[in-house]
Amino acid sequence: MNPSRVFGITGWKNAGKTTLTERLVAEFVRRGWKVATIKHAHHDIDIDRPGTDSWRHRAAGAGEVALVGGRRYAIMRETPEPSLSEVLARLSPADLVLIEGYKREAHLKIEVRASRDSEPLAPGDPAIVAIAADVQPGDGNLPWFPRDDISAIADFIAARIG
């Protein structure tokens, strides 16, 4: 995956990162782009449900289980957390990869802010190149977008990644 086609959505918990990511995916798809996403969680995740056959395979000790259906598949692997570059390398080609989370990585990002009360991330992260917030931040040299101005945010991302 070309790192220049990667853009991040970062911010503190409950700032609106998932909503912004979802709306940006829809906007870029509407524009004819092929989009992939990566969602980083700081806790253990499990996409399988206890009692299902694939869950039982993993519970029995399988280190990797592929769950295949008519329109999609998932491969669950028991492993230490891979690096972002390892995950990017496994994705199919896309026009854009939106990354939600990974706030400590060096890819270009937009910071989503829910209120002025949360500690801003941008002053300590040169990879944050814009702010999305309901109110224009007072700390700023960075471009600001209202969180609902999806078209303008998408235009900004498209311009930044070329």
Structure report:
- The protein has a single domain, classed as 3-Layer(aba) Sandwich (Rossmann fold).
- It is built from 4 helices and 8 strands; from the N terminus they run E-H-E-H-E-E-H-E-E-E-E-H.
- The strands form 2 sheets. A 6-stranded parallel sheet has the order 2-5-1-6-7-8, covered by helices on one side. The chain has a two-stranded antiparallel ribbon with strand order 3-4.
- A hairpin with a 4-residue loop joins strand 3 and strand 4.
Question: Secondary-structure map with pairings?
Answer:
Layout: E1 6-10, H1 17-30, E2 35-39, H2 53-59, E3 64-68, E4 73-77, H3 84-90, E5 96-100, E6 109-113, E7 128-133, E8 144-145, H4 150-161
Parallel strand pairs: 1-5, 1-6, 2-5, 6-7, 7-8
Antiparallel strand pairs: 3-4
Helix pairs in contact: 1-4
CATH topology: Rossmann fold
The protein's oligomeric status is single chain
Strand content: 15-25%
Give the helices and strands as they follow along the chain: EHEHEEHEEEEH
Taking the alpha carbons of the first and last residues, their distance comes to: 15 Å
CATH architecture: 3-Layer(aba) Sandwich
Average predicted confidence as pLDDT: 90
The total tally of domains equals 1
The tally of helices reads 4
Overall 3D shape = globular
Query: How many strand segments?
Result: 8
Rg, alpha carbons: 18 Å
Major pleated sheet: 6 strands, parallel
Low-confidence parts: none
Helix percentage: 10-25%
Which structural class fits the helix and strand makeup? alpha/beta
> Strand order across the biggest sheet?
2-5-1-6-7-8
Assigned CATH superfamily? P-loop containing nucleotide triphosphate hydrolases
Highest-level CATH class: Alpha Beta
